[in-house]
Specification:
This protein has about 220 residues and is of the alpha/beta class. The chain has a single domain, classed as P-loop containing nucleotide triphosphate hydrolases (Rossmann fold, 3-Layer(aba) Sandwich). Helices cover about 30% and strands about 30% of the residues. The protein has seven helices and nine strands. The strands form two sheets. It has a six-stranded mixed beta sheet, with helices on both faces. A hairpin with a 2-residue loop joins strand 1 and strand 2. The chain is globular and about 45 Å long. The protein starts with a helix and ends with a strand. The structure holds adenosine-5'-triphosphate. The site of adenosine-5'-triphosphate has 12 residues, from strand 1, strand 2 and helix 2.
Length: about 220
């Protein structure tokens, strides 16, 4: 095994983050350490308010930690292919169809056939009949799957997804979690998925749990 393949894709060391609300300080992250290996799917469990979104935002670079370090180690691909995010509120562009939303980052990343790649992923996620609709013309569960397709289409080194199955029924949750796992394993991509969902956790290579801003326990997926 080469040295490179054993290096983590993501390294989080001693990350803290606090928010001020008037005179109150909310300590959202209290010294989080986490490593994710290439091809590994890690599910981040935790109650509402435990700090999952804050951690994903710090890893995505959308928020700056107060202290500690976040490193995404990638030696391949364009910047578009390093970290892809599925935000909790999807972030689809309103004026583009689902197919256009998904093809856009593939085009920006220089993928050879962005439209074909987008359609293939959308079809795989059960969205064949809605791919030419605008985000406002689809259900929340359909929009959520399109947001996941938009992140996966660039074959990112690291996929970050905030509740990627939160709007899906049981059968779809299982299907989506399996697709993420298969794509990560095939492509050597790593994934960090925040979830409340036991089905998503069951598909993980590893489960970590945030409790009041601290990573408390870590268990292998069963
Ligand atoms: N911008 C902000 N300003 C003030 N407090 C915030 C802000 N963002 C998050 N918080 C607080 O930080 C804590 C962690 O929030 P975070 O959104 O990371 O939790 P979460 O585990 O993702 O929750 P959920 O599962 O409900 O999405 C919570 O107490 C939350 O109220």
């Amino acid at each position: 095994m080469s040295v490179l393949s054993t290096q983590p894709v993501l390294s989080v060391r001693g990350v803290t983050k606090a928010y001020r609300r008037g005179r109150e300080t909310v300590h959202a992250l209290r010294g989080v350490d986490l490593e994710v290996a290439p091809g590994e799917v890690v599910v981040l469990l935790g109650r509402s308010g435990s700090g999952k979104t804050t951690l994903l935002n710090c890893v995505a670079g959308w928020e700056a930690p107060d202290s500690g370090a976040v490193e995404v180690l990638s030696t391949t691909g364009t910047p578009w292919q390093q970290v892809a995010v599925v935000p909790q509120r999807f972030g689809l562009l309103d004026e583009l169809t689902l197919a256009e939303n998904v093809a856009l980052p593939a085009r920006l990343a220089g993928s050879p056939e962005p439209e074909a790649a987008a359609r293939e992923l959308l079809e795989e996620l059960g969205l064949a009949v809605v791919l030419d609709r605008l985000p406002a013309e689809v259900s929340l569960g359909e929009a959520q799957r399109a947001a996941l397709a938009r992140a996966l289409v660039v074959r990112p080194t690291l996929l970050l997804a905030d509740e990627p199955t939160g709007r899906l029924d049981e059968a779809l949750s299982v299907k989506v979690a399996a697709l993420v796992r298969r794509r990560c394993h095939e492509q050597g991509s790593a994934a960090l998925l925040a979830s409340h969902d036991a089905l998503t956790a069951a598909s993980a290579d590893r489960v970590v749990r945030l409790h009041d801003g601290q990573l408390r326990e870590e268990s292998p997926a069963t």
